[in-house]
Task: structure prediction
Amino acid sequence: MTNTPETNPENAAPADPASISGAAAALDLGPRVAELEALVETLKNEKLLALAEAENAGKRADRRISDNAKYAVSNIAKALLAVADNLSRALLAAPADQRAANETLKNLATGVELTERELIAVLENQGVKKINSLNQPFDANFHNAIQEVDNKDVPTGTVVQVFQDGYVIHDRLLRPAMVVVSKGGPKREAAPGAPPQSGVNTTI
Result:
């Protein structure tokens, strides 16, 4: 069989060297392109992570600034509580019957009461609030028990006397209450979902 010019390999046009080198280059660039795409993806993820960390750092800084502003007066507030305690003790030295019998003592006690109320109002404006402790369950987070007494009329672990009021500033303890706690009474029933009651930390 005779080969026609169209089908004769000897008559076929020679391959273009440029096309061959281009195809080879394309094959060689494949791994490099994949490597660069992976690098781009990694850099994108690192950028997103850096942005998230920057945002979290900003939130933490804002929180610290807010806390500093809220609790900046803690030390002076604690010092002023001692002044309020002394005013209360001064009033105890002037019972109502003695005030009624002595006009000067009555006026003096009235002035002390007004000063005490004004001082407490200033503290409250700064977020300072008294802890309600009497007849409440002992809580080691807010109370400092200086004594335990037998009392079968109330559940064990009840605050039956307050020697010194405790205070919080916003949501933090400023000063624990100095209290007397009962023992020997019935066991206190825990509220549904409440954690176990802390033990009494007596500091006699």
